[in-house]
Records
---
Amino acid sequence: MESNFLSLFDVAIDFEQSHLFFPRIVTWVLLIMLFIIVIRERKAILPGLSRAGKAVFSKEGDFDRFRFFGTLALTTAYFYLMYAVGRMFPNTGYGFLLMSMPFIFLLSLLFVGIKTRRNVMIIFANAVIAPGLAWYVLSQLFNITLP
Amino acid sequence: MDFFSQLTPMILLLVFAGTLIGIIFGSIPGMTATMAVAVCLPLTYSLGINGALALLLGLYVGGIAGGMVPAVLLNLPGTPSSICTTFDGHPMAKKGEGEKALKVGIVASLFGGLFSAAILFFLAPVLADFAIKFSYVEKFLIIFLALTVIGSLAKNMLMGIFSGILGVWLSLIGVYPVTVGGNGETRLMFDFMEYYMYSGFSLLPVLIGIFGLSVILLDAEKGLKGDGDGQAIKLTKGSGFSFRDIKGQLVNMIRSSSIGTFVGILPGVGGSTCSILAYTQEKNFSKDSSRMGKGAPQGIIASESSNNALTGGALVPLLSLGIPGDSTTAIMIGAFTLQGIQVGPLFINSNIDTWYMIVTMLVVANLIMFAAMFFAIKYIAKVIEVPKHLLYPIIVMMCVAGAYAINYGIMFDVWVLLIFGVLGYIASKVGIEVVPLIIGFILGRSAEVYFVKSLESFGNFTIFFTKSPIAVVLWVLIIISVAFPIYMRMRSRRGGDAVQSN
C-alpha cells in the first residue's frame, strides 16, 4: 500500500528532454507567483501604470526626462560607435579611447547643473584625461582587451 | 606557513589601494561598495588570484566603512549599511562634534571588522567540512533554503521570493551544458538568439549592469539633484575624540558585531538590516538609551561595528558553501570564477594558502582602513563634495571595459550590461528586489544540476524529504524561514488592530 502511494511521486527524466525539465518547473512557479501578485495588487496596478505614464510623457512632476532619456541615448550610441570604430583599428583599444572622450564630455554636460566657463573647462579636462588614463592602464599596463 | 612568502609588498600595496578607493566610493552618497568592486573588476583580470582578492577585499572593507562619512556630515548614508549612523552621527556633527562622531565610528568599524574576520576564520572551515558530506539532494535544499531566507527577509515576502525565482529563470537561459551532465541543448530562447546567447548571460555583465548602470539611470531620472538636506557640515576643531568616548561600550560592540556577522552569513540580507537590528538592540538593552537619536556615540558604535562585521560574515557562506552573503560577495564569486577557482565546500582545503591569504588580507584591510580614516579623516571628508557629473560618466566607461574584457572581447556582453542596467532600473520601479534576483541568478544553474541529477538517480520526488536527517533538518529550516515572517506580520497586524480599536 505504502509503496503504491510513494510511486505517485515517481519521475523518469528522458535524457533527450532533460534540458527542459527544470526550466519548465521554474517557469510554472514564476507564472503562478506572478498571477498571485497580480491578484493581490490588482488595485494598485492601474493607478501605478498611469502614474508612470504621466511621469514619462507629461512635463510635470519630478521625472527628469531630458537627463534620463539623454543618458540612455548617449549610452546606446556610445556602445554602438565604440564597436564600429574599434573594428577599424583591431586589437588596439582605440575604439574605446576615441569614443569614451566625447561620451564622457557629453554625459557630463548633460548631468552638470550650472554650465559656467570653469565647470565646462573641468569637464573637458576630465573627458580627456580619464579615458586616456583608463586606456593606458588597462590596455598598455595590464594588457586587457578593449573594443 | 608557506603563505607568508606570498604576502609581498605588491599585495599589501593592492590592499592599500583597494581600501583607499573603497573609502572614497563609500564616502560619495549613492556610490556603494558593490559599485566600487564592479568598477575596479577589470583591473583584477591580469592580477592573479591573490592580487585580485587583495584589491577586492580592500574595496569591500573601505567601501562599507566610508559610508559613515556622508552619514555624519550630510545626514545621508553613503551606503545603505550606514543608515543608522545618521541617527546619532548627524546630530553630533551639528553640535560641532563631527570629528568625534567619525572617529568613534572608525574605532567601532575596526572592532566589527576584526571580530568578523575571527568568526570567518573559525566558522568557515567547520561549515565547509560539514558541507563536504552533502549529496546533490542536500545541496539543492541548501540553495532552496538560501532563496526562501532571502525572500522572507525582503520587504515584501511574495515579491522577494518572486525576484529570487526570476533570477533562477534568467540563469537557465542558454545551453544545458554537457560538462555538468546535461544534454547540450539550449532552452528558454528563440533560435536566432543562439549565436549570442548559447552560454546564457555572463554573470559579471549582469552584475555590473544592475549595480552600476541602473544606479546612474535612477539618479539621472531625479536630475542628479541629490537628496540630502543641504550643505555638508564642515569638520571644525570642536571637541576632539578621546578613547573615553567609547568607554563602557564593549558589550555594545560585541553584541552589534555578532549581529552584523550573523546577518552577513544569511544570504542576501543587506547591510541596512544589520545596522537597524544592531541599533534597535542597543536601544532595548542599554542602561541609558535616552540620548540615542540625539547624538549619542553608542548609536554610532552599534551601527558601524555591525555593518563592518557584515564583511567577514558575508564571506562565510561564500567560502564554505559557494553562496554569496550579499551583493558585493556576489561580484566576488565572479572574480573567483575568472581566476578559475570554484568556491564551495572544497575551496578551503584545496586552496589552503589562498584561504589564509583571504583572512590575512581582511585583517590588513581593516587595519589600513582604520589608519587611513583615523588620521586622514579631514581630507576624506572633502571627497563627498566631488561632483557626480564628473564621476558617473567615468563609471559607465569602467563598466564597459569590465564587461567587454570578461570573455576576452565579446561585444554582446556590453549590450548585456545595458539590458540589465535598464532591467535593474525597471525592477526597482515595480518592486522587484535586486539582491534576491542576483543570488537566484548565481545559484540557478547549480540548483538545476542538483535537482535534475538527484531525480535522475533516485527517480522519486520523495528523495528530497527522505535522503538523510540533514535533509529533514533543512526542510524544517525552510518551513521556519517562511512561516516566521508570516507569523510576525500577522502578530504586528493584530497588534495594530488592537491599538486602533482602543
---
Amino acid sequence: MQRRMTLWAWLGIAVAVVWTLLPIYWFLKMSLLTPDEIARFPPPLVPLDPTPAAYFNIFGFDYQVTPELVRRASGQAGQIINGLINSLIVSIVVTAITMLVVVPLAYVFARLDFRFKQALLITILLSVALPPVSTLIPFYALYVQLGLAGTLFGLIVVTLTITIPFVTWMLIGYLRNLPPVERLARVDGYSRLETLVFIVIPLARSGIAVAAVIAFLFAWNEYTYALVLVNGTPANTLATALSGFLFQHPEPSHLAAALVVSILPPVLVAYFLQRHIAEMNLVDPIR
Amino acid sequence: MAGIRLDHLKKSFGAFTAVQDLDLDVTDGEFLVLLGPSGCGKTTTLNCIAGLETPSAGRILFDGRDVTSDPPHSRNIAMVFQSALLYPHMTAAANIEASLRRSDLAPEERRRRIDDAVSMLEIGDLLDKLPSEMSGGQRQRVATAKAIVRQPTAFLLDEPLSALDAALRMTLRAEIVNLQKRLGSTTVFVTHDQVEAMTMGDRIAVMNGGRLEQIGTPSEIYERPRSLFVAGFVGSPPMNLIRGEVADGVFAAGELRVPLAAAPGPVTLGVRPQHLHVRAEGGLPCAIFALERLGRETVLIVEDRARNRLRLLVEAEFEGRVGDPLDVAPDPARCLLFDDASGLIHAPAN
C-alpha cells in the first residue's frame, strides 16, 4: 500500500529544496544580470533582460550587447580556463586511480577473511578521521623539499590520500551486502580475480558508480590542500582560482558565471549516474 | 556418479571446531540428508565435500580417489545454495551456462545438455529473465537446471528450500526427489528441517555439535534413535521425554509408573505421542492443556499434577475440553530409555 504524503512531509521537502537551490539560483541569476541591475537595490528577483555576456567574458571573449555597448572579456579569463583544465585533470586522474585501488581493496576487506584484517582496516580508515588541516603543514614542508609543491602530480597524490580511505570505507558497506556469490563462482571454476572482474564488479556496478562520483566530487571540491600547495602557481585549480577573485574586485556577474561553470561538471556526473545513485542503498557501512 | 567417503574429517576455525572426526559413507546414487540444528557442522561438512572449505584433518574420497586438496570445479560437483542462489546480474540462461564454463564440451553437446535441463525443469520461458524477476520456486528450478547441466559426480544441496513458503516447499521436495531418482545421482542434502529429512532422504545423518549422532534410514532414525538428541530432534510432534528412575523393574517419574525390564538407575524415558494412550483410570492423572486439531488426527497436550506437559496423538473425533481430567499411560513396548549421563539409548526396553 502506498502511503500518502502528509502535509508535513511536503513542507520538509520544500524547505530542503529551497535550502539547496536558493543559493544556486541566486548566483545563476546574478550571472545573467547586467552590472547596473546587480548594483540596484532591492536586487531584482528574476533577470528581466538576461544576457549571457558573463559566460563569454570569463572565457576571454568580448560580448556585443548592443551596437554601442560591448562587455569586455574578464581579466581573469586565463586563470579560469587554466583552473578549469587543471581541475578536470586532477579530478579525472584522481577518480580513475581511486577506483583502481579502492575496488579491490574494499572487496578484500568486505568479503575475505585474513590475519590482522581489523587492525589494517582501522589503519586505513583512521586517515578519514584526520582533518586535512592537521596534515597540511607536514605535506607542505615535504612537498617543498621534494619539489612537488605547485605541481598537478603533487596535488593528485595528496587528494588520493583523502579519496582512497573515504571511498574504501563507503564501498566496504555496499560490498558486504551483496549475496554470497563467491561460493557459486568457485563451484563454477572462477578464480578469485575472475570472480572480482566478471561477477562482483558487474554486480556492484551501482555502488562502484556512486563511489566514483564521490571520488570525483571530493577531488573537484578539494580546496584546503590546493590553497596551500598550488595556489598562485600554473597548477592552480578552479576552486582556488575562484576564491582568489574575491580579493580582486571582479565584475560580480563574472564571479557568478565562473561559479556556475564550476558546479557544472559535478552536476553532469551526478546526472548521468542518477539511476545508480537512486538504486544504491547506502546501508550502515560499519556493522 | 560416485560414492563419497569422508575419512576422519575435521574442520576447525581458529579455536572453534565445527566438525570433529567425521566418518561418513555416501553410496553411489544415494540421497543422503545431513540433518541437525544450526551450528552443528552440517554446512561445513557439505562445504568440505564441495571443496569450498579445506579440511583441517582427514580425507575426502570420491569413488576411492582422494580429492581433499582439489578445487571445487575439478571435483565435478554441482551445488545448490541456500535460497537457490544465482548470479543476480545474469539471466537464467547465462546462469545455467556459467556451470559449463570450465568444461571442454563441444558446442553442440553444450547446447544439448542445456536444452535437456531446460526441458526437464520446464523453464524455457524463464531463460531471458533475471533472478530478481522470478519467483522463489522459479529460481529454485533454474538453480537445479544449473546444477544438472554439469552431469556432476555429486549434487550438494545446502538448505535450498529454507526460504520458500510451506506449500511450495512441499511441491519442490517431491520434485527434487523425483529428479534425483530419475538421474540416479549421488546427493547430499543439508537441512535443519526434520520433516524435509524424513521425507526426502534414503538415509539421514543426524549431526550435533560437530559430531555424527546417528546415521540410518528415516525409519531407523525415527524408530530407534540412538541418543536423546536424535529422539528429541526427529519427529513431529516431538517425542515425550520424561526424566525418572528405574528400580525393581519399574520406571518411576512423579506419579507415573511404567513396568520396564531395565537396569536400575536414573534414566530418561522417551515415548512418541502415538504410543501414549488415554486410559479411563490407572494411568498418570492429567488434565487437558490444549487440543490441536490437524484434521486427520488431533494432538492432545496434557499436564500432570507436577505441571509436566505430554503430547498424545488421538483420533480426530476426540471429544474433550481444556481442563478435563483424564489418565494417560504409555505403551511399555514402545518406550525407549536413555542413559542420563551419556544421553545414549539404554538396553532395549521391552
